[in-house]
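Ticket #4471: complex job returned nothing on first submit. Input attached below:
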Amino acid sequence: MADATLTDVPEAAKPSSAALFSRPTGRGPRDNAAVIRWVLLFLGGIVMVMPIAYMISTSLKWPHEVYNVNLIPDEPTIENYTYVLEDGRFYWWFVNSLIIATLTTISNLFFDSLVGYTLCKFRFPGRTLVFIAILSTLMIPTEMLVIPWYLMSQSLGWLDSYWGIMFPGMMTAFGVFLMKQFFESVPDDFIEAARIDGLNEFQIWWTVALPLVKPALAALAIFVFLGNWTAFLWPLIVTNSVELYTLPVGLSSFGDEADVAWELIMTGAAISTIPTLIVFLVFQRFIIRGVVMAGLKG
Amino acid sequence: MGWWTQLTQITIPLLRPTIVFIVVFSSIGFLRIFDHVFNMTTNNPGGPLNATKPLVLMIYETAFSSFDMGYAAAQTVVLFLILLVVSLIQLRLLRSD
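Support reply: We reran it on our side without changes. The output follows.
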């Protein structure tokens, strides 16, 4: 009778061999692939997390233990944290970095979106030429520009000042490009309607177009803030006085001629990741919300 | 079709644009390396005996230790040409089917 039931089952209802292999409890090639995949992803995860784990581990070590590669300190201490937080220099550098990164981010959000909007929604002679000129500067790396920037700051007296650190990044070609691409998705009808309702061009940009590209603004804000928070080469070149160092430049100056105080550098680095985390979490929510709202409006 | 064939014949070819992007951008990134080297060899940047000196550190020293701005600017132009040639070669090699 058992034989009969098997043959009576219609062809389509029989489980295929592929379906059998993919059963979670089964043993087959799919399972092996899943194990290999899991192991590879786990190794990748370890490679990514390792430097951060070492940063935190080193920040909890005494100086004599820094060059041991053990991940868990023999005698953990928060001495480094109290030292760094009580050190006035760290406080200056933190505030400097915060001011510079915040002002640069605001400036980028404002000017990049303004230029991007203009290039996207207005027709004027030379528009393409301007856009190509801005785009072509994307190819040139910062390292090439520091010498012209330095000579410029020198002749204008901007060396060793906040403005000197900030001016090269107040507007970025990448930001203009990003915003222009996102304004393409704002329908011209909205702008036309606002114009008929009597808003001036600046009001249209501010009240109609900008709210529709919030996700792009959030992405740009994260990008610019992180870029300026971690910038090293230019702040290193343009600053001379210790009070004006940004966090990365200041941290690298910890220690003396004989020995680099890695435990202090790592402590400072661990603390300096906190604002970036906050910025990321705050603006990331805008990105998600923006996507949801765009979906609702269909 | 085995998983190896699937990987080499379908998955990797379909990932080609992403692979091209990553290869070009990470090689440009490493040719421009500065921060890591400068910080890890603080007392003698690029040392021992220039063995770990990247291009950007050399430019930095020409410009801001020797203050030879013209020579340093010329070095940056050479760096730019290297980046350009490397990316063009990679694009050519990886894009061709």
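The CA atoms of residues 130 and 262 of chain A lie 47 Å apart. Closing as resolved unless it happens again.
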